[in-house]
Amino acid sequence: MRNVRRRSPNTDATQAADEAAARHPHVADLHARSVYRGAWRLYRREPLRVWAAALVLLGPGLVLGVGAGIFLDRFTEDTVTERVAFALAVAGIAAVLGTLGTVFYAGLLDELVGAVIRGGTPPGLGEVVRALPIWRLVAADLVVVVMAGIASSILVLPGFILLAMLSTVGPIVNIERRGVFASIGRALSLTSRHVWLIMATIGVPLAVELGADHYLLHLEGTAGIWIQTLVSIPVILTIGVIVGLNEVVLAYAMLARDPNSTVAEMVASSVGSASA
Question: Looking at the 3D structure of the chain, how many domains does it have?
Answer without folding.
Answer: 1
